[in-house]
Amino acid sequence: MVDDFKSYRQQQLQSDRFTLLREHATFVGTDTLELSPSGRRIQADRILIATGSVVAVPAIKGLDHPEIWTSDDVLDLASDPESVIVLGGGVVACELTQFLIRSGVEVTQIQRSPRILKDMSASASEVVAQALRAEGVQLITGTSLKEVQKTADGFTVDFEHAGARRQVRAKHVVNALGRVPNTDGLNLTAIGVSLKASGHVAVDSMQQTSVPGIYAAGDVAGPHEIVHVAILQGECLGRHATGRSAEPVDYNGLTSVVFTDPQVAMVGRSCDQLEASGRSIRVADYKFDDHGKSILMEARHGYVKVWADTTSGIILGAECVGKDAGELIHSMAVAVSSGLTVQQMLKVQWYHPTLSEIWTYPLEDLL
Predict the structure, then answer these.
(1) Digit-coded pLDDT (tens) for 104-132
(2) pTM recorded for the entire structure
């Protein structure tokens, strides 16, 4: 059925206006691509670079071994492995770690930074770390990875931790140390397309690169590798490339979700970012274990937090760590993206008993 559907979709995509080409493209001019292996050249008035990202392989001895898994390999497994070492502490690493431990796999997770989910708040990171350890994950943070070695019966990972050299063993290793923009082989710099120090394609507010007519969106451009952000970027550049009015993507209302259990979700600029910019804010939070519906659902881990401008009361951001956080955050996403105040959000009829009404407690505290 799957193969039949893929064939059907490919037939649908082949038309006078759209042709799906399964070849590698290299820029040989600002409006020309050369395809391989056919050698065919195609031209266009507008070109979009949306090549995504690939797994990063930092300069750690042995990390490039072909038998080391990526997230793709883990999701393609036909059976549960005996033991796995997960390298990394970001979103993908934490989600895969919990997936594996709940499948009955012995898991060791090694993070280089002092804490996991370092792009989230310290309090959110701590809640997830406690949950992972409670489920049996051997979580080690604040390390310096030295070497990955293939052995007769698996792998060993050497690292420094708390001033001492350590080694752990497992049947398999997963490289979840991040991703990098997929630009190799495109020949971008040769045609004048600028790249950032991070390797991302540099774009303006309309997603246009340093070469007029060439655009970039999604993981290859950043600054956030999230599907809905790529969609917003695509809509922006699509309008601009066809001569229509376009508005740049507003990253102040960025929504992020980590699908661990408990989930972590956030919207808006963080408290640290706002305070660093000189913004005066007030912050209030409320714990799930003091909320009726969450107690009944045995979803007692975590909290909700809201922060607002001290003078105007406009809600600038929110965070939720707990049951269905990825769903609950959208109430505050509406508030942040619409510039609503604490007072306006408290006019909403928050139904009881629901998980959503937990937002009223920090909102009332702010008011």
Answers:
(1) 999 999 999 999 999 999 999 999 999 99
(2) 0.89
DSSP annotation string for 112-164? SSSSSSTTS-HHHHHHHHHHHHHTT-EEE-SEEEEEEEEETTEEEEEEEETTE
pLDDT digits (tens, 9 = 90+) for 214-227: 999 999 999 999 99
Q: Which residues pair with 265 in a beta bridge?
A: 257, 320
Where do the structural domains in the chain lie, given as residue ranges? 13-50+180-249, 71-176, 252-366
Does 3.30.390.30 match the CATH number of domain 252-366?
A: yes
Domains 13-50+180-249 and 71-176 share a fold: yes
Identify the architecture of domain 71-176 in CATH: 3-Layer(bba) Sandwich (3.50)
The Cα 55–Cα 66 span in angstroms is 13
In the structure, what pLDDT confidence band is assigned to residue 20 with cuts at 50, 70 and 90? confident
Fold of 13-50+180-249: FAD/NAD(P)-binding domain (3.50.50)
pLDDT tens digits along 319-333: 999 999 999 999 999
The contacts found for 23-32 with CB under 8 angstroms, 24 or more apart, are 24/185, 25/186, 26/185, 26/186, 26/187, 27/186, 27/187, 27/188, 27/190, 27/191, 27/193, 28/187, 28/191, 29/191, 30/191, 30/192, 30/211, 30/213, 30/214, 31/213
